[in-house]
Amino acid sequence: MKKILLPTDFSDNAYNAIKYAVELFKNDECTFYLLNTYTPVLYDAEYVLYTPSPMSLDEIYKKNSLKGLTKIEKKIKKAFPNSKHKWELISSFNMLNDEIKEQVNEKNIDLVVMGTQGATGADMILFGTHTVQAIKKGTCPVLAIPSGYKFKTLKDILFPTDYFLNFSDKHLKFLKALSRKHAAKLHILNVFFGVLLEPEQEKTKKFLADYFKNIPHTFYSIEKGSVPKAIDDFQKNIPVDLLVMINNKHSFFENILFRPVVNEIGFHVKIPFLVIPSENFNS
Fold first, then answer.
1. CATH 3.90.10.10 matches 1-148
2. Are the CB atoms for 17 and 147 separated by under 8 Å?
3. How confident is the model at residue 172 (pLDDT cuts 50, 70, 90)?
4. Environment class of residue 186 by beta-carbon count within 10 Å: exposed (0-12), middle (13-18) or buried (19+)?
5. What is the DSSP annotation of 5-44?
C-alpha cells in the first residue's frame, strides 16, 4: 500500500494538489496523510487580556486545524469516493518542512504531493518557499502541482538528466512503477553543450536503458543554451504530462533551481513536477 503525504494550508492550490494525487492513484491502494501545521504566537498580550475563552491559544489553533482537515477529508471523499483509499489526519504544532521530514521518516512515506504557490504571470509558476525546501531537503520523491492544473492521464513523461548521477532502484522504482501503471512513454533528455559524454556518463546512460528496457522510452540529445530552455522547447514539440528530475547537490539541477534568490525561485513549469532525491544526495 502506498503512503502519500499531502500537506495543506487549506488554500485552493493545496486542495488542487490533493485532487491530483487522488486521481493519479485512483487504482492503487493508498493511505493518504492529510497534514496541517500551525505555529501560533506564544505570547499574545492582547489575546490574554481581552479574550475570555478558557482555551489556550495553542488549543484554538489545534481545534481549527483539525476542523479544516476534517472538512477537506469529507469534501474529497464525497467528490472522489474510493474504497482503496484510506485517510489519516495530522495536525501538528511545528514548522511545515520539519514536520514533513519527521512524517516521512516515521511513516516511511513514498511520496509528498504539494501545490505550488501562485503564479507571476501567464508563463511562470512561482514555487513558494515551502515547496522549495521540501524539494531541497526531501529524502523521498516530491510531486509539485502547478496552481490550477487539472489532472490528465499520464501519457508522456519528460526526464532530463546530465548522466552525472548515482542511480539506484531505490530512487527510480517510483518513476518506473508510475510509467508502467499508466503505460506512459519516458522521454530521457540530455542537453548537449558541445562536449561528448564522458565514460561515466555513458555508463549511466546504459544503466538507464537497461533499467527501463520494459518501459517505452527514447533518448534525446538537444543542443540548447540552457537546460530550462531545452525543457521548454521540448514541450513545444512533444507535449508531456509530467516533468521528472533527480535532485543532487552537485548536479545541474541544483544550479537550475536553487540559486540564492530570497527564499523563492521562479521556474517555467506548467505541468506536474516530480523531484526524486539521488542516491548520493541522501548519503
1. no
2. no
3. confident
4. buried
5. EEE--S-HHHHHHHHHHHHHTTTS-EEEEEEEEE---S--
